[in-house]
Amino acid sequence: MKRILSILKEKWPEYILEILVITIGILGAFALNNWNENSKNKSLVEDYYCRFLADLKQDEIQLNILLEESKLRLTKSNELLRELLLDSPEKEKSIQLMLQATSKISYEFNPISAGYSDLKSSGNLNTFTDQTIVDQVGTYLQEAEGLANNISTNGRIGLDEMFEIDDFYAIGFIDNTFMKEGLDTTIVQQELLDRNPLTPLQLKELKHVASLLVAVNYRNNLHYGSILNKIKDLTPLLENKCTLSQN
Hints:
This protein has one domain (2-246). 74% of the residues lie in helices and 0% in strands. It has 5 helices and no strands.
């Protein structure tokens, strides 16, 4: 026993040193592992910010195109109403303007949610220590989808009213520059098409359609503008986060 105690007394500093080395090694390994994990999570979060931004930029590009098309439809809707208010509106011009006022009117905008959907399905949401921007992206997508649905509904209302017109033949729908390519003159004799002036009843019906198209196209312009404003508010926040990740 004395021999053991003597050996321990002699080797104690050495044993202490070995214990310290082992302890430091274990703690260092834990620290390195935590650092690697934190670095990995930080990189993942920064990648999501950049993906959110890329999705938002694609939405912005698409919306600017759709807004310009909607503005053109509104212009044509007003021109149609102006034409129909003339003493002798031209049948062919009226139909052409009506078709221009409804061109692509029912197109449904779908906000891109690839990055956000991946985040929600991957279980990586808990890697964000600050979820404020994530919540804002989610709110944007929810509101954009709601407004997009309104836009599509308005467009369908406009188209439905146009297709409710009682007599497309009588108002000269087939005999206009938009439809002439579809008219096979080897089968249909153009000279027999109805070229009579629009009747008071037809004018009343077309004025109703034109007025509705002015309303729905204007309303859709506001909806497109509202979504773009939401993008404008969110973009700088994401640009800041994404830029930091690239420095």
